[in-house]
Design a protein that fits this description.
- By secondary structure, this protein is mainly α.
- The protein has a single domain, classed as 3 helical TM bundles of succinate and fumarate reductases (Up-down Bundle), CATH 1.20.1300.10.
- It has ten helices and no strands.
Amino acid sequence: MATAAPSNLKESPSKHRGVQPIRAGEGHSFLLRRLHSLSGIIPIGAFLLEHFVSNAAATNGPHAFAEQVKFLTGLPFVIWLETFGIYLPILYHALYGIYIWWRGDSNVGDYPWAGNWMYTAQRWTGIIAFIYIIQHVWFLRFSGVHLMDSPGASFAKVQSELLVPWKLGFYIVAIIAASWHFAYGLYLFAAKWGITVGERARRRFGVVCLAIALLFITVGLVTVRAYFNPQWCNDYVTQSLRHRDKAKAIERGDDPMSQQSSSGAEHQR
């Protein structure tokens, strides 16, 4: 009686084609890998979507952007929301992603298939986005004008960053990197969690993810362009000159507010 020959469990490297099967993780790393995968969608992916939408308020001008910043910074328990909903998840996702990369091997040179190139692009875009997040958060949240106290200065502060050529270039690269990283992360998430089963479903969802990446990139670039709109491009310079002129007026004693304060003090005496 004829029997079917057993199939080879492992193919030779020369026979590998396409994206290799995606596994969720093994042994004690299973939970950590699942958490890493989930954190990239919730809350980080949700925050990225909100961030792009909020930033797009800049296309309506400085006042609209200031109102959006005022709303976000005025949320109850905003410090705790930022800490546990943004900073810690991003820190975990980034550091564990670096650990996975360090332990793994993309084999791009030996196995020039789509899966390995995508793997490498995913890691590098994650590194770029993480470095930019550190620089961006430090500049906007922990240096210069404190936006939680002065949301009206938000447009001018971002504008001052984009007026620096290397920061503008880094910002654009970061938009592309973050958009790609999130979109391909959605693709991997759907495969790992059994949402897309089979190559056909993955291929179709891959097209959707590509469209998401292009949409995010487009929104990001249109938002950047708003800061160079002739109608608002002098907002940072105008505010800087206004503060400088006010300081000089106070020194000369010509500032109306300082004069009112002085007359009020004299009246009390």
